[in-house]
Design brief:
This protein has about 270 residues and is of the alpha/beta class. The protein has two domains: about 50 residues, no CATH class; about 190 residues, Ribonuclease Inhibitor (Leucine-rich repeat, LRR (right-handed beta-alpha superhelix)), CATH 3.80.10. It is built from ten helices and eight strands. Strands 1-2-3-4-5-6-7-8 form an eight-stranded parallel beta sheet. Helix 7 links the parallel strand 4 and strand 5. The protein is elongated and about 65 Å long. The termini are far apart. One of its GO terms (biological process) is SCF-dependent proteasomal ubiquitin-dependent protein catabolic process.
């Protein structure tokens, strides 16, 4: 064999190759930390890059008012603040996102949001294109907020208001959302009357997912109303509702046996 020859390996599967992040990705990960201070200098960046930095900051829970002010543009359509502490100042900045359709302000595991009901009610009319809203665990979500939401955000398809201080008054407002398909009412004060409003309202025929975990006021009659009036129901979850009895199981077995139900869980007391 000629000593100058270089033999290529026939099978490269024996070799491992490490991928290297692009310079852009490395730069974004460096900027999107709580140690970066000069956010004002980022305002000149293209919107696509600012949006990437914004998403990383949100995911890391490092979104300060200064960062949000520099990075948020009117073109932002999807904003997940579930890992951030959201204040009134954050809501004021969200108001300039005229095209936003998905807003996630679920309470994270380690923080509580600090915005007020009044500031939220000022924001809601400015989001006419909103289709998905997640506000689980927020004390500022009241019956009045839901009433305003139903009259301002007609395109809503997904609403998560679990663990919020809501009553049947809020349920009556939710019933008006004709495009609503997914609803979480877990751990609220909604009773049978509220469920009746929803299942017989404008959204009843479209709903395919309802979660009512730990709703202490609902009875078998509420479950019957869902089964009879929501023909598209695919997901029904009602764990920990102490007024449900063995009749609930009979209702669900009879009325939903021929439906295309994908997920059904409940607790019988």
């Amino acid at each position: 064999m000629n000593n100058n020859e270089i033999n290529e390996p026939e099978n490269l599967s024996f070799y491992s190759f490490n991928t290297v992040d692009s310079l852009l990705t490395l730069s974004i990960n460096t900027i999107a930390t709580d140690k970066w201070k000069d956010y004002a200098s980022l305002s000149i960046l293209p919107a696509s890059i600012k949006n990437r930095i914004l998403r990383v900051l949100c995911k890391r829970g490092c979104l300060t008012i200064e960062a949000m002010s520099a990075l948020l543009s009117s073109d932002v359509q999807d904003l997940n603040l579930s890992e951030c502490v959201v204040t009134n100042d954050h809501l004021k900045l969200i108001a300039k996102c005229k095209r936003i359709y998905n807003l996630n302000m679920n309470r994270g595991r380690y923080q509580n949001h600090l915005f007020t009901t009044e500031e939220l009610m000022g924001l809601i009319p400015k989001m006419p294109h909103l289709t998905q809203l997640f506000t689980e665990g927020n004390e500022s979500i009241t019956d009045e907020v839901i009433d305003l939401l139903s009259s301002s955000c007609h395109k809503l398809t997904t609403l998560d208001v679990g663990n919020c201080p809501l009553t049947d008054k809020a349920a009556a407002s939710i019933a008006k959302l004709e495009h609503l398909m997914s609803l979480n009412l877990s751990n609220t004060k909604v009773s049978d009357a509220g469920v009746f409003s929803i299942t017989n309202g404008a959204c009843g025929k479209r709903l395919f997912e309802i979660k009512m975990n730990n709703c202490k006021l609902i009875t078998d009659n509420a479950i019957r109303s869902v089964a009879e009036n929501c023909p598209c129901i695919e997901i029904l979850v009602c764990h920990g509702c102490p007024k449900l009895t063995g009749k609930c199981e009979l209702i669900l077995t009879r009325l939903l046996s021929k439906r295309n139900v994908k997920h059904l869980t409940y607790t019988v007391f």
